[in-house]
Amino acid sequence: MPHFESSFDGAALFYRDYIPSLIPEPHNVRAEYSNESQPTLVFLHQWPLSSSMWEPLMIHLSESYRFRCIALDRRGFGKSEWNGMRPERTEIDYHVLANDIVDLLEKLEVGKFVFIAASMGGGESLLAYMSSNYIRQNCQGFVWVNTSLPYPTATPEFPQGTTKETWDQVIDKIREDRAGFMSEAFKGPLGVGNNEVPDKLMGRIERMADAADALAIERSVQLFSGYDFSETLATLNQESKLPVLLLHGDSDAGTPVEVTAWRVAQILPRSKLKVYQNASHILIVTHASHILEDIILFMKSI
Length: 302
Description:
Elements: E1 3-5, E2 12-18, E3 40-44, H1 55-64, E4 69-72, H2 94-108, E5 113-118, H3 121-131, H4 133-138, E6 139-145, H5 164-187, H6 199-210, H7 214-226, H8 230-239, E7 244-249, H9 261-267, E8 272-276, H10 283-286, H11 288-301
Parallel strand pairs: 3-4, 3-5, 5-6, 6-7, 7-8
Antiparallel strand pairs: 1-2, 2-4
Helix pairs in contact: 1-11, 2-3, 5-6, 5-7
């Protein structure tokens, strides 16, 4: 799979691009789907994983349902560099992450597409949309999975959010014992919750986190826990009628549905919210088949 160069600092950023083909004959292909007129699906992963988390869905959607599927490794995660060769460009914020997405989609000239973004990826997709004419002209909708939008950190108005002190403790624990913290977190409400998950599958998730750059892990926590997208969402509601699908777990401790997806649904009344029962933060591990079904229904609706 290829890399491209960030226009911000020259960092080499990795992406997956699954383009439907008829040679060899696809497995379990759905005859009612065509690869000529369907929008591309653009996947953005959650912290602290990589585009690999989306592989099971991307294979289904590309091979059987004939969608072109693109997934970017956020800078510092997977096979993407955290920073490039320009030492004066060190202020990497949410807008830089969004610019990386704009760079990729404009370079590939993907045409019509839909964002499918998990957790902090929702913020990246929203800022990419607001900052690029090309994205606004071609984006057909958003699917936000266990989103951190609009703001996952506790406030006096929304005390159910995770406190700033807790996010700081997460950083301290990662500095002290990154592998141990990730292993325990992924087995609890920040990961798969009470669901039974095979050990080898959990090991694969842990390896994704192990591959991430330490600085990227820490600064990403600071980014998604410190950026309030409420006004940006309100602007989106005023300026577009794009459909939005929210998929969220009812037991997500990191981005509780009460302070994230429910609030997004209030700011964007046209959005549709589906809450998965007995579901925590890493839905792709425990509820992949449900996500696949809901994506297919969403794409049919648009």
